[in-house]
Amino acid sequence: MIKNAALSLSLILTTPTLALAETANFSVIFGGKNVGHLIADTQGDRTLIDYDFKNNGRGPTMKETIRSNADGLPIAWTITGATTFGSKVDERFSQSGSHAEWVDSTGKGAATIRKPGLYVAQSGSPWSDQIIAHALLKAPGMSLDVLPGGTLRLEKGEALTVQGSGGPVQLTRYDLSGVNLNPGTMLLDAKGALFAEVSPNFIIIRKGYEGEEQRLRKLAADWSTQRFVTMEKQVAHHYGAPVRIRNVRLFDPRTSALTGPMSVVVRGKEIAGVEPLDSPPTPGEVTIDGAGGTLVAGMYDMHAHLQQDGAMLNLIAGITTVRDMGNDNAVLDRLIQRMDDDVIGGPHVVRSGFIEGKSPYSANNGILVDSQDQAIDAVRWYGARGYWQIKIYNSMNPAWVPAMAKEAHLLGMRVAGHVPAFSTADQMIVAGYDEMTHINQFMLGWVMQPGEDTRTLFRLTALKRLPGLDLQSPKVQHTIQLMVDGKKAIDPTLGIHEQLTQNRDGQVPPGAVDYIDHMPIGYRRDAMKAWVDTSAPGDDQAYRQAFDKIIATVRMLHDRGIFIVFGTDTGGSFTYHRELELYQGAGMTPAEIVKRATFDSARYVGQDQRMGSIEKGKLADFFLIPGDPTKDLKAIKTIRMVVKDGAFYYPSEVYPKFGIKPFAAAPDVKEPALHP
Questions:
Q1: 80, 429, 524, 583: which one has the fewest Cβ atoms less than 10 Å from its Cβ?
Q2: What pLDDT band is residue 219 in, cutting at 50, 70 and 90?
Q3: How wide is the angle at C-alpha 118 spanned by C-alphas 116 and 122, nearest 5°?
Q4: For the segment 633-669, what is each residue's pLDDT rounded down to a tens digit?
């Protein structure tokens, strides 16, 4: 489950009156495949919008009606439909004179408008960029305060020409920022009309110009890179001398406890020494005062779909390695190269080769196949390129899995994945899976009926059936025994299931209570939305109780000795910290959790000789916190410093660049005096 597939563009406003009558038609393309449409029909002062796309069997369906004034600003706007995971949308905005009022999933709001302004919708279509451009291009400094809060800014980029059925079009790039973590990129034509929204993985483009999709996504990746290259130069500290971090305790995975006060010396990319606190410094060292805090080895997010926009945020959350579970292979390769070359900041990456069967519900990552021979060829392609494992997805023909697993094991790769539609976890365990992906995939076979299709949202909505499940029943115990006997592992992704079952409109999600007030307004509003439709009688309680059953199942797996890896599938960073917390409810102690997130994960992917603990000769990958995570796991949420491959990052310097209020101050750093 990839949350960012929803692409719930938070900077969504409305559209001006382009002409007395005009229809704009756009294609939605994900991973090179046309997956939907956006149609905006303007008649006089009214615009009707139809926005719908489906990737991986899910996506938003929205209808909008917008009435604009003579300046092209909205005075009445309704948005109805459903979000990517099915929750209902009924958002409304109206303005009369200087009075504006609105209602969205967070509740009601009102304001007095004393100057031209824009309302930032919580839900809606990317057609909004039209009004953004219309308003901001006329605003002083291309900056404007917006409702219900925050400031939008537009920055002009380069010009380019595209070709399509309508002939050549001259475009200009604009980056929009101000209310969310990362800017979005739009392309406008010479008349200032929206031509495309672009990102490295996803594009909405004027119909007739779909042939430019691959080129524009590549440009989007390059433009995004420019931002993060500049950021890396500003926030990555390479001291060019040994760095002594004094007065710190280390989390020791061998004892699952903290050491006494120590000093850790870093030179280049490696740990040069772990020394007694009273060891005298050598000339020319940089000294960092750990102030009695704790150093923890870099953590592993074992279920990522890494994108450039989230690479730095993962790193400064203490995640120095991610296991990517499916991506655009070429995009990921370029990203890894940039991070490994220290061009941009981000974690190490362990790659999983995504293989999906072709169907109307296919996910558009990795390699799509429609025969067993093609599936085996895909396995071999990944093996020749050093991938650690393959990941099998929902539309795969289950009859092909044994041959795929055999080939993967022959090539030294592990096998993980979803349970293909119309099969069960039991069958995949027997077929050769080494690891099960997502706790819902693992459990659905206990509550489904033959013929029910998990390529659709059913694989999520069927969780409503879990409260009535008897975990001691023979079918449940049989699956768990297969896991035990086969020494299989599982990647539950508890956090995304908490969000799916527990998030409600207008409420702070339980997993976000410790950080939501630090986030920009667009992020906060987007977080306070339900994922699924709970309007039917009994559904609210059923989803809430489903998560209790999930936690009980994971506790049972842990008690039976099944190896559990910690991954988010929600972008990592802050949600990874919550992921770790949830395993306390499954019976793991804070010390067990820290060990699993660091050394155990490094050992699982074969990296424990160089990573996973703080020892002489290992890579300098660790983070500094003021508290003791073996007593209170929340201590990992106040990170003062992160070191990755010997580069020093201070989150208090980085977070403001994303519009985030820092959580902790940087430690004191003393550099040696320069001598003439």
A1: 80
A2: very high
A3: 165
A4: 999 999 999 999 999 999 999 999 999 999 999 999 9
> Picking from 119-123, 453-457, 554-558, which range would have the lowest pLDDT averaged per residue?
119-123
- Give the model's pLDDT for residue 113: 86
Cα separation, 193 vs 289, in Å, equals: 54
Collapse the DSSP code of 582 into the 3-class scheme (helix H, G, I; strand E, B; otherwise coil) and give the result.
helix
Q: Which helix H or strand E contains 177, and what residues bound it?
A: strand 169-177
With beta carbons less than 8 A apart as the criterion, state whether 368 and 326 touch. Answer: no
Residue 403 CB coordination number (10 Å)? 16
Three-class SS string for 303-371? EECCCHHHHHHHHHCCEEEEEECCCCHHHHHHHHHHHHCCCCCCCEEEEEEEEEECCCCCCCCCEEECC
Let me know if residue 63 belongs to a domain. Answer: yes
Report the domain count for the chain.
1
Rg (CA), the chain: 25
Closest CA to 245 of 672, 668, 676, 673: 668
Residues in CB range of 674: below 8 A, 6 or more apart: none
CB 153 within 8 A of CB 177: yes
Distances (CA, A) of 312 to 212, 463, 493, 522: 29, 34, 21, 19
pLDDT band at 675; cut points 50, 70, 90: low
Say yes or no to pLDDT of 221 above 80.
Answer: yes
Tokens of 213: 């999709």
Residue 344 lies in a domain: no
Please give the pLDDT value at position 124. 85
- Residue 445 CA to residue 423 CA, distance in Å, equals 8
**What does the block give as tokens for 570?**
């929600």
Percent of the chain with pLDDT over 70: 96
How confident is the model at residue 72, as a pLDDT? Answer: 85
Query: For the chain, how far is it from start to end, CA to CA, in angstroms?
Result: 58
Residue 181 placed within a domain: yes
If phi over 0 gives left and psi between -120 and 50 gives alpha, with beta otherwise, what is residue 111?
beta
In a domain, 136, yes or no: yes
| Residue 124 domain boundaries | 3-234
pLDDT of residue 120: 83
Across 610-617, average pLDDT: 98
